């Protein structure tokens, strides 16, 4: 049997109104956590919300989240063939699932 | 229906890569009130931040140079199809924009106090500046972000996905947007709008740009009635990283390695092969992108590819010390990925990189629609059938600056934008959810496969017709009503709007490629090899009554006096 990574992912739109959901992802050595999250969206659940732009280059710095309690970039954190807990940044306002409000306030749309 | 938020501005800039940020700075400095919008974070996504290579401009810092030499090289690379007026603007104003970036502290690499210039393929002399190590794009982005932040008159709004442009009687009025962070509809009234949305590399499976480069600007312009040009010319970067798996690195990273260290491009049998395709390599980096892409694909087709279906790129002749001197910390990043260049080659293969085509514009960056301007990669024509290395960031800076000036002038000239109906676009953004929708992420992967397999660097009538059928099927699956139920960061709804644009732009690329029955630059028709004199024309695409209409015209030339000086 192929090795799998089990991603236990926080889902929800408010900090007190959410839950963890687990997904098994086919594991290939060298993959990133972001690769696993993108696989889940295309093959299991497209409603999973993640924020990323540059995919693999660690240039855009948008894919910050917490993996096993540590803040990482999902594009450079390695996927491992075990259970990994993936949660939104705990020090930023939650938007949905793994997406948080990471932009400085001056770069957000405000009511005129 | 959620009440839309109303925003008014003098100049709306859509996209915050180098072109958009420069346009915003220039317009604000000219006194305009500016709203700089991006579908993601401000100044983080797009192509600029991923541009690890060089910026071309005839500074003459290493040896005497003049912009007319740069122009000659640009026109030659364009295989007869450049809009010479735009190419001239790029080359003539490039040095000034590069010096302005230097003054803003971008940190171009220097040798003996002078800005260092590398020689890149297709240039007749060293003309390409860069920031060490592999930091050109991030440094350009960061510098412009800093200037944007200290320029008064620029409001910034990230997470703002522009859905449609608003216009009335050939005049632009603003745009309707989806505020991604909340799901709310937004109506933006603007006296002038600058499209700085970059290219379309996201249409392809393997690509070198950000996930937000899905051709948004091309689709917005088409639906608003503006024509596009040269849509069949998608540039593939020949030596995109293929294997072993490498994370935290840009796939185009091998370009700087090649211009600094040469390197050897080998087929699966370990043989140099460029010479079989009429090009000499000799360990120097001189092969233009269209030729290198052709040579690698042909070797793979002949069964002489590397294990993952590309070519080997070897720096095994370089010492550890030479590698470290040239690339410092990058060598450690490679080691973290278990790559030691002194003992192993890497595998590379062509990767979608840049789009030569785009919105038709004049040298003021004005389009056919009053009040709609365009900047950077979103502009069509400057690079013809094949772009020269180093011209992309230069055009982002130069065209961005020019578009900002033109937009500010219009904002000062008119009292208010026309009153245009936002109804249909607003309805789409606010539409209730659609049950049993397809997987939007899987649909994007399906489109990327179609484009890579059938509308890639090599096309035939059969592959293009097959692609158009499958694109039509995906459009049917997408339907007229958005996926998802709305609300904050609804990825299915975002991807529905993305696919609406991507499928329209994919059709424009495939239809233009089907009509061009010759091979030229980045467009290679296996059923029509060879360049034909009667095809020395640009193809224009328009959206009319729910269909794409194509027409041809000779490329715009320079004024006679200028052409004589060439």
Radius of gyration of chain B: 23 Å
Number of strands of chain B: 21
How widely separated are the two ends of chain B?
A: 60 Å
* Rg value of chain A: 14 Å
What is the distance, rounded to the nearest whole angstrom, between the alpha carbons of the first and last residues of chain A? 57 Å
Can you tell me the CATH architecture of the largest domain in chain B? 3-Layer(bba) Sandwich
SS-based class of chain A: mainly beta
Unreliable residue stretches of chain A: none
Considering the protein shown, what is the CATH homologous superfamily of the largest domain in chain B?
A: FAD/NAD(P)-binding domain
Principal-axis shape of chain A equals: globular
Main CATH class of the largest domain in chain B: Alpha Beta
Mean pLDDT of chain B: 93
Query: What pattern of helices and strands is seen along the backbone of chain A?
Result: EEHEEEEE
**Assembly type:** heterodimer
- Adjacency order of strands in the biggest sheet of chain A: 2-1-5-3-4
> Biggest β-sheet of chain A: count, sense, barrel?
5 strands, mixed
Do you know the CATH architecture of chain A? Answer: Roll
Strand content of chain B: 15-25%
Low-confidence stretches of chain B: none
Structural class of chain B, please?
alpha/beta
Can you describe this structure in just a few lines?
The complex is a heterodimer of chains A (112) and B (566). In chain A, 10% of the residues lie in helices and 35% in strands.
């Amino acid at each position: 049997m192929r090795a799998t990574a089990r991603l236990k992912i926080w889902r929800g739109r408010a900090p007190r109104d959410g839950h963890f959901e687990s997904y098994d992802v086919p594991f290939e050595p060298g993959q990133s956590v972001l690769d696993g999250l993108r696989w889940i969206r295309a093959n299991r659940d497209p409603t999973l919300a993640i924020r990323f732009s540059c995919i693999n280059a660690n240039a855009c710095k948008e894919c910050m989240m917490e993996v096993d309690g540590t803040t990482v970039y999902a594009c450079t954190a390695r996927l491992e063939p075990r259970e990994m807990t993936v949660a939104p940044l705990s020090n930023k306002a939650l938007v949905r699932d793994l997406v948080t409000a990471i932009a400085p306030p001056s770069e957000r749309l405000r009511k005129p | 229906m959620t009440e839309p938020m109303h925003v008014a501005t003098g100049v709306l800039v859509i996209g915050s890569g180098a072109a958009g940020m420069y346009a915003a700075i220039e317009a604000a400095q000219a006194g305009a009130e500016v709203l700089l919008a991006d579908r993601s974070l401000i100044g983080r996504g797009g192509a600029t931040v991923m541009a690890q290579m060089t910026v071309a401009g005839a500074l003459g810092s290493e040896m005497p140079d003049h912009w007319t030499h740069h122009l000659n090289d640009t026109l030659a690379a364009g295989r007869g199809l450049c809009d010479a007026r735009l190419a001239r603007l790029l080359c003539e104003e490039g040095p000034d924009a590069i010096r302005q970036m230097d003054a803003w502290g971008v940190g171009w690499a220097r040798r003996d106090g002078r800005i260092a210039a590398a020689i890149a393929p297709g240039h007749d002399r060293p003309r390409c500046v860069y920031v060490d190590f592999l930091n050109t794009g991030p440094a350009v982005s960061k510098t412009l972000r800093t200037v944007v932040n200290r320029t008064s008159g620029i409001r910034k709004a990230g997470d703002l996905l522009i859905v449609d442009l608003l216009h009335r009687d050939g005049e632009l009025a603003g745009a309707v947007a989806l505020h991604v962070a909340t799901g709310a509809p937004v109506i933006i009234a603007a006296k002038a709008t600058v499209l700085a949305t970059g290219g379309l590399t996201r249409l392809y499976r393997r690509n070198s740009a950000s996930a937000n480069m899905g051709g948004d600007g091309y689709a917005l312009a088409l639906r608003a009635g503006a024509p596009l040009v040269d849509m069949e010319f998608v540039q593939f970067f020949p030596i995109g990283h293929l294997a072993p798996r490498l994370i935290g690195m840009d796939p185009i990273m091998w370009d700087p390695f090649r211009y600094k260290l040469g390197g050897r491009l080998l087929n699966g049998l370990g043989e140099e092969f460029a010479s079989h395709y009429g090009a000499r390599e000799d360990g120097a980096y001189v092969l233009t992108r269209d030729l290198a892409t052709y040579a690698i694909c042909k070797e793979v087709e002949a069964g002489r590819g590397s294990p993952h279906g590309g070519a080997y790129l070897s720096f095994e002749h370089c010492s550890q010390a030479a590698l470290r001197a040239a690339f410092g910390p990058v060598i450690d990043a490679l080691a973290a990925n278990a790559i030691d260049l002194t003992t192993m080659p890497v595998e590379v293969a062509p990767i979608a990189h840049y789009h030569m085509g785009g919105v038709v514009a004049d040298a003021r960056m004005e389009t056919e629609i009053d009040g709609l301007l365009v900047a950077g990669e979103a502009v069509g024509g400057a690079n013809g059938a094949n772009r020269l290395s180093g011209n992309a960031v230069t055009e982002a800076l130069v065209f961005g600056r020019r578009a900002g000036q033109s937009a500010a002038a219009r904002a000062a000239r008119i009292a208010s934008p026309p009153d245009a109906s936002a109804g249909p676009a607003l309805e789409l953004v606010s539409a209730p959810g659609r049950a049993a929708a397809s997987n939007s992420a899987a649909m994007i992967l399906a489109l990327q496969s179609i484009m890579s397999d059938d509308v890639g660097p090599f096309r035939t009538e059969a592959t293009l017709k097959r692609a158009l059928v499958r694109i039509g099927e995906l459009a049917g699956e997408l339907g007229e009503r958005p996926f998802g139920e709305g609300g904050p960061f609804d990825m299915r709804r975002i991807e529905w709007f993305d696919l609406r644009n991507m499928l329209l732009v994919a059709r424009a690329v495939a239809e233009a490629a089907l009509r061009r029955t010759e091979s030229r630059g980045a467009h290679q028709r296996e059923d029509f090899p060879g360049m034909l004199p009667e095809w020395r024309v640009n193809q224009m695409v328009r959206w009319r009554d729910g269909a794409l209409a194509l027409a041809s015209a000779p490329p715009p030339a320079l004024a006679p006096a200028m052409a004589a000086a060439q």
